[in-house]
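ARCHIVE CARD
SHELF: 3
SLOT: left
DATA:
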Amino acid sequence: MSEEKNTQNSRWKTEFDTMVTRHHLTGAWVAVVLDPLWFISDYYIIPGYWKIFLALRIVVASLTLGGIVLRKKLNLSNVTIVLIPFLGIALQNAYMYSVMDVDTLYKHTFAYIALFIGAGMFVIWKPIYSIIVISLSLIGNIVLFEIFSKLTLEEILINGGLLTATVAVFSIMLTHARYHSIRKEIIARLQLEENTAKILHQKEVIEKSVTELEKINTKLSRFAHIISHDLKAPLRGISNLSEWIKEEIANKADKETIERMDLLQGQVWKMDSLIAGVLEYSKAGSADQAVEEIDIYELLSEVNKSFTLKQNDRIHILPGLPKIYQNKTRMIQVFQNLIGNAIRHNDKISIDIKIYCIDKNDAYEFSVQDNGPGIAPEYHEKVFELFQVLQDRNQPGNTGIGLSIVKKIVEEIGGKIWIESLPGSGTTFKFTMPKIQKPVNEIQGSREGVNS
C-alpha cells in the first residue's frame, strides 16, 4: 500500500513539474521580450533616466534568457527559471520608484501592478516563494527610497505605493489558489485515469471469465447430456433384467429374495431420478430467455393443476399477485418446485399452502408458505445445495435437486431466495424478483397495431 502511494505521489509530482516548467518558461520568455520594450514608456514618463532604466531592463532580460538557455546544463528548477525575472523586475522597479517624483510615481504605478498581475498569470508555486520575492522587493524599496528618494512615506503610499502593496497581496493569494487547484486537478485526473484503467482491466477480466464460463457451461451441459443418456441405457437394461429375473423366480424364491429384488429396482429408479434431475438442473435457466407478460394468478392456477391433492388439502392463492414481465418457463419451474416441495414434505393430515406477494418498489417479494414440519435454521442454506435431502431420500420425487433449480433460476434473474422457518412451525420460502419494464419491441408492436 505504501509503495502504491509513493508511486501515485511520484506520478503527480512529475506531471505537476512538467506543467509548471512549461508555464514558467512561457512567463520567462514574456519577461525577456516585454521588459526591454517598457523603455518606451520610460522615455516619455521619466526621460532623464530612460537610458539607465533600459540598461537595467536589458540586464534583467539577459539574466532571464541565460536562465532559460542554461536551465538544463545548470539543472535549474522551474522555480528558479521564473524567480530570476520576477525578482529582477521587482528590484528594477524598486530603483525606478526611488528616483521618481510624485507625478511620475503615480503614472508608473501601473507598471509595478502589471508585474504582479503577470506573476499571477504565469507563476505556479508555493506561496512562500511569492512572500520571499515581495519581501525582498519591499526591502529593496525601503533601502533605495532612503538613498535616492525625496518623497515622504505618505506621498509614496497615496500615489501608488498602497495600491501596489494591495495588488501584491492579491498576487500571493492568486498564485496560492492556482498552485493548490492545479495540484488537486492533476491528482484527480491521474486517479481518474488509474481508476478507468482498473475498470477497463476488470471489464476485460470479467468478459474473459464470462466467455470461459459460457464455454465451460456449454461443455458441462453437453457432458451431462451425454453421460445421462449413456447411463440411462444400461439402467433400463438392469431394470428390465431385474424384472425378468423377479418374474422367473416368483414361484421359487423366498420372501427375502423378492424384497431384495424390489430394493434393487428401487435403487435403479432412484438412479434414474437423479440422472433426470441432473439433466433438469443443467437446463434450468438455459432455455428460451424470451420475456413476456405473465399473470401470476393465472400461471399458479395452471401450475396447481399438475398436483394431486387430497380432499382437505388447500393451496390458497392470495389476492394482490402482479402481472410481471419475465420468462414463463422459468416462473413455472420456480413455482412447481416450491409448491411440490411444500406438498412432498408436509407431515400434516391436511396440507395448507399460501402463496402471496409484496410490492417492494423496485422488486416483487413472493412467498410460498406451508404448514409442514418446518426447517431448523442450520439447514436453511443447506437445502438449496445440489442433492441435499433432509428427509427420506427414497420418498418419490426426493432427488434433492428441485430447490437447487429454484435458487439457480432466481439468482440468474437477479433475485434472492431465503427461508423463514423453525421446527414445528411450518416453512415460508421467500424470493425476490426485480421488476422488468415492458419490452421495447412489444411497446412498438402495440403502437403499430393501434396505428393500423
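SLOT: right
DATA:
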Amino acid sequence: MVQNDVHRSDSIVLSPQRIHEAQANMKRYVSEGLIKKQIFREEIFNVFMDNSNESLEMSRYLSDKSDLWTIVTAYYSMFYISNAVLLKLGFKIEEKIPHKIAADAMIVLVRNKLKDSLFKDYEDAQNEALAGIKADTLLEEFDLERKKRGLFQYETTRSEKHSKAQTSLKRAKNYVFEMKKLLKEIK
C-alpha cells in the first residue's frame, strides 16, 4: 500500500483515514513527550529556514546530476520548513522519529491554517473547497516524499528514478513556497 502511495502521480489528497491516523498519533506523541510546546526562538527558526533554503538550492543543483540526492535534498527542504512552521506555532519535535512526527503534526496543527491561507488566494467563497483540496494536497505530498525517500534507494529501478526525482523537486519548490507564505501570516 505504501509503495502505491509513494509512486502515484495523479491528484493527491489526504484521506480521512490519514487525518484520523495523524490525530491519534499526535495524542501519543504529546503524551510521550515526542513533541512539546516551545517558546519561539528566532535563532532556531533561522536555522530551520536556512537549512530549508540550502536543501532546496542543492536539490535544484543536483537535479541533473543525481536522482537520489535530488530526492533527499528536496525532501529535507520540506522537512526543515515544516519544523520552522511548527516552531512558529509554538511546537518543537524531539529527536525520536522526527520525520513521522513532522508529517503528522503538519496535518493536525497546520492543515486548517494552510486552508485559510490558501483561501485568500482565491477570489470568491465558491472556491473555498479548492483551497482545502490544495492544502490537503500539499500536506499529502510532504508525507509521500517522506515515504519515498526511504523506499527510493532500495526499490526503484534506474529508469524510474529520474522522473521521480523531478517530481520531488517540483513538490518541494511548491511546498516551500506555500509554507513561506503561511509563515508570514502566523503571528
